[in-house]
Design brief:
With 486 residues, the protein is mostly helical. The protein is built from 20 helices and no strands. Helix 3 runs antiparallel to helix 7 and helix 15 (326-351) packs antiparallel against helix 16. The radius of gyration is 25 Å and the shape is globular.
């Protein structure tokens, strides 16, 4: 008996997911991408097959398949999420969704699952091409299947990034930033996957993913955990953008970041993974955690502290780090900064006993790059505390800082001197610019950079303490007024 094929989606499926799937699969973007990918792969595979000898045909076919698949999965598909939440906010349909008792998380997850379901469909369609490639011989089956899985997992994380940013009211954040940054991020993550960072080695980049060594297996697991955290954090950011202030979406986001950083810190003395992957993992966890924490802009609502107050003084102390307000985010961002430095320098300290090249140059690079995340936060704390576009302003300041660093580095090299850069020592990235042309002891750069970072931290911390104290005093006065009226 032939099983009956359902004519429509099941009623058990979430309504937002059904809505997004119907709309997404009818969009011209997906149709063009789907058909275009098949046409390009078919034409290129025929060309590669006819224009190559039997020794390298398989490698050419693999390169063609994964190149076009990477463009579709790591660039085009994630970019389809840049208007996911902004479109609902602009059309005033978020309120209608809330009336259906859908939580902010379910709305965001529905949009995310819709796009990755379409990405999964694209992944399934390239399997016949991989089967064709198998008959040309020389195929590392485990490595190429693992690369396919990792690319799909990376696409899931990058899609979460664009959907999370799409809730911002800033056009720069939700539009320009993904369009310019996504290709760079995709390329960097792809190179991390295939260029030996997982300890695979071998005659081709695919061999790095063959899971032939314990280091490669650990590296793959660590990478999957890191991008899962990244994706979850960005989806949480998107949920925060459309949720009412009384919902605390910062708690889980910050808890996972803290647990991951503590795990990396504890594992640092054991050297379980490659040094480059260890540093990349710290940055992958710390950078989004610090940026999101520093740009928190939710107003204080007494209800968000009630779950913490049930645990007495320890709970009230934890609330200073885990409620979704700017002062709390500032405290958490500072904590993440120090934990990140501890995880990196503890690994370097351990490796100094086994022949590591970790030196003052590395210390300057790490302190400068992590310190660059403090400068926009300090600038906002002093000059733009009540700015409604905190994320957009932060990103502009951060990007402007890196552009200025490039200009200063070019001037320093053209003048063959870094003396004039002393005028910019108040910015951590100026030390990165003067690194190549500095004539003195580089430990002086490390000391000066440490002082600059501490100064920025002091500005952020004391401004956050003042704002946090004022908020708590206002809350106590309101509670006293309510009690007296009752």
């Amino acid at each position: 008996m032939t099983p009956e094929i359902p004519a429509d989606f099941s009623d058990r499926m979430p309504p937002v997911l059904v809505k997004e799937l119907r709309q997404g699969m009818r969009q011209k973007t997906f149709i063009i991408l789907f058909v275009g990918l098949q046409v390009f792969l078919a034409v290129m595979l025929l060309s590669a097959t006819s224009g190559s000898n039997s020794n390298n045909a398989g490698d050419i076919i693999s390169s063609v398949i994964f190149t076009f698949f990477a463009i579709a999965m790591l660039v085009v598909q994630p970019l389809r999420g840049i208007n996911a939440l902004a479109g609902e906010i602009k059309d005033n349909t978020i309120e209608m969704m809330v009336l259906t008792r859908l939580s902010a998380w379910r709305i965001v997850l529905g949009k995310w699952i819709s796009i990755i379901s379409q990405s999964a469909l694209l992944m399934v369609t390239i399997i016949p091409y991989l089967i064709l490639r198998y008959f040309f011989g020389g195929m590392n089956l485990v490595a190429e299947v693992m690369l396919l899985i990792l690319m799909f997992a990376t696409s899931m994380a990058l899609t979460a990034v664009t959907i999370g940013l799409s809730g911002s009211s800033s056009v720069i954040v939700r539009g320009l930033l993904p369009i310019l940054g996504l290709p760079i991020a995709s390329y960097s993550l792809l190179m991390m996957m295939v260029m030996g960072r997982f300890g695979g080695g071998g005659r081709s980049p695919f061999d790095a993913l063959a899971l032939a060594t314990p280091e490669s297996r650990i590296g793959v697991v660590v990478y999957l955990l890191a991008i899962a955290y990244l994706g979850g954090s960005m989806l949480s950011l998107g949920a925060s953008a459309i949720a009412p202030p009384a919902e605390n979406h910062a708690f889980l986001r910050r808890t996972f970041a803290l647990l991951l950083l503590l795990a990396v810190l504890i594992s640092a003395p054991f050297g379980l993974i490659d040094e480059g992957l260890h540093v990349a993992l710290v940055y992958l966890v710390a950078v989004p955690a610090m940026i999101i924490a520093f740009v928190e802009s939710s107003p204080y609502v007494a209800a968000v502290r009630e779950p913490f107050a049930r645990f007495g003084p320890p709970g009230k102390l934890a609330s200073h780090l885990f409620i979704p307000t700017w002062p709390s985010g500032a405290f958490f961002g500072i904590l993440v900064f120090f934990l990140s430095l501890g995880a990196i320098f503890l690994y370097g300290w351990r490796n100094n006993f086994v022949g590591s090249n970790f030196d003052d140059d590395d210390a300057v690079v790490i302190l400068s790059t992590l310190g660059s995340l403090l400068f926009p936060a300090a600038w906002q704390a002093v000059f733009f505390k009540r700015d409604g576009q905190r994320l957009g302003t932060y990103i502009l300041l951060l990007v402007g800082s890196w552009i200025a660093c490039g200009v200063l580095t070019g001037l320093s090299q053209s003048m063959d001197s870094s003396a004039f850069l002393m005028l910019f020592v108040w910015h951590p990235l100026s030390y990165l610019a003067m690194l190549d042309e500095f004539r003195g002891d580089e430990s002086m750069l490390v000391a000066g950079l440490g002082f600059t970072n501490l100064l920025l931290i002091g500005l952020i911390f004391f401004r956050a303490v003042r704002d946090h104290g004022k908020t708590l005093r206002d809350d106590q006065e309101n509670q006293a007024g309510i009690a007296s009226a009752a």
